């Protein structure tokens, strides 16, 4: 295979043969020479599918024929240079005349010219179906009156050719490119002139395409074998392009793919996936042209994105679909959601469960020829494994994060570029690396001030295992940068998976990964970079959950110390909030502090609150106001209202037992959309019961 850009050029010499077809070309050339006679003519038909290498084989046959027998002259007749019989006859005679000796062939050329002038109008009136028009009959009569008859002209030209003793091979390549009427016109020319003594003919074509063109012209019946019988009258010696053997297909594919291979991770899986799908490649890429065209497209597509921004194997499979099933490839983006999820989005109910209705990829495969749907199905399921059915064998799917089966990378494979709503993995990797070294600017720029959709995409890439630092100092440094970024993000309690939660979870993962003997001050330094107490607790709750799973026995030494410090801070923060009464800051997240302390040191919080109440520093109504929550309906424009469900259970754990006149106050009519502490305190009146005497 040539190393330069593919141009679909035929081989010019058997020295370039990489498929072992030279011996076949030698035998074909020997057959042409052995059957030659100056008293007759023969037509050879070389048939093979488009792209199988017919022209290359023709060139090797001609090279061998003239190499072994220099006396042979070869005329190249190009039938698609003209479209009617007159033009075809003229082109044929010109091609034949060009290979004749300059001096000795002068009389032959004159005889051929007379033959062409006689045959052209006559041939032009040969009907394909039905009789010639009356006007045509008149024209031919006038022409024949001025010229010798066809038989006289043809006999004279044949005699002149025979006397030259010059064997001639007329090569007519790609006759299947002609349309129906054009094809029949050519075959009529061959029949008219195909009996020049001493002249052999080599026609190259694809049987299937040829018969389809003949059928389209209504000259033959598509079902009775008349097309085959028609060609039997034209071609005496059919020869065939040898098909590619499986090992030749694989070798040619390997040679081509090796030119575009890029560095991959040595994960023990590289190559296994495509190897398992080799039959898909050999079923679809059956000719040298098909393989080379496929590789040429990969040579263009794969370099469009840097390594590690896509899965190269996914590109190879999608390109195979594109060159083999263009309609299927164009339909894939239309079924993006179904292919990525494996379901239609509609709910399926039965007696035991509620599930999604699985997506049936058979509906997508209707654009694929029936005999190729099995192959197309294997390729689709390998790319989108969630569409595998229970009766299928194990799927060979990508294990890479950048696979087309993942939502955030899907678009890249059809744009072959990083779109405006996308961010390159290299950019994200560089930003995380900079943050690990203490430079927060690149990562902050990526995460702050961008659209929510893009921020979520960046965060997903940031948390790739390959981006996580390996050493404790780097982990702590990255966690501090993330804590500062968390301070800049808005709090969105209306959604369960906010960007803020993702960053707090990432901070927790970095802290849990620290060594057991890490100084508590290191952990505390990260936590106190988060300037909001509620967010600090949210991050620590994730640490607690991860610690419970990661450490089955002894917990790291820093854990208890950091927890105790955070509990002390939460108690102090909550008490201070109570002391500020109605003037305390709104949205401070005191609920997080209360519940966090109750999980760790409930008695300490209870005692501290009682001391404030007994000292008249805080009224019981202020405490109750902190447990009046607000609510809205997720999924619509936020409309926050005070909740009717007072948190009596938590109140019982904090407030001291005993009656207070406030408990007997009536329920007040308040504006439920007023979320101030004063309004919450008024709202709590008449809705709160005193704690029981014994908890």
Mean pLDDT: 82
Number of helices: 30
- Number of DSSP strand runs: 9
* Helix/strand/pairing category: alpha/beta
In total, the number of domains comes to 4
**In terms of per-residue confidence, which ranges show pLDDT below 50 for 5 or more consecutive residues?**
122-145
Instruction: Provide the CATH topology of the largest domain.
Output: Rossmann fold
What can be said about this structure in brief?
This protein is of the alpha/beta class and 695 residues long. It is built from 30 helices and nine strands. Strand 6 (343-349) and strand 7 form a beta hairpin.
Description:
There is one protein chain. The chain folds into 4 domains: 14-240, P-loop containing nucleotide triphosphate hydrolases (Rossmann fold, 3-Layer(aba) Sandwich); 246-263 and 274-415, no CATH class; 425-580 and 592-604; 619-695, no CATH class. Helix content is 51%, strand content 6%. The chain contains 30 helices and 9 strands. The strands form 3 sheets. A 5-stranded parallel β-sheet has the order 2-3-4-1-5, with helices on both faces. It has a two-stranded antiparallel ribbon with strand order 6-7. Strands 8-9 form a two-stranded antiparallel sheet. The protein is elongated, with a radius of gyration of 42 Å.
What topology does this entry show?
Elements: H1 22-34, E1 43-47, H2 54-68, E2 73-77, H3 85-98, H4 106-124, H5 134-146, H6 150-164, E3 168-172, H7 180-193, E4 199-205, H8 207-216, H9 226-234, E5 237-240, H10 246-258, H11 272-276, H12 278-284, H13 288-301, H14 312-324, H15 326-331, H16 336-341, E6 343-349, E7 354-358, H17 373-383, H18 412-415, H19 425-436, H20 441-447, H21 452-462, H22 472-488, H23 499-512, H24 520-527, H25 533-550, H26 557-579, H27 590-614, H28 620-625, E8 630-631, E9 641-642, H29 648-654, H30 677-684
Parallel strand pairs: 1-4, 1-5, 2-3, 3-4
Antiparallel strand pairs: 6-7, 8-9
Helix pairs in contact: 1-2, 3-4, 3-7, 4-6, 7-8, 10-13, 12-17, 13-14, 19-20, 22-23, 22-24, 23-25, 24-26, 25-26, 25-27, 26-27
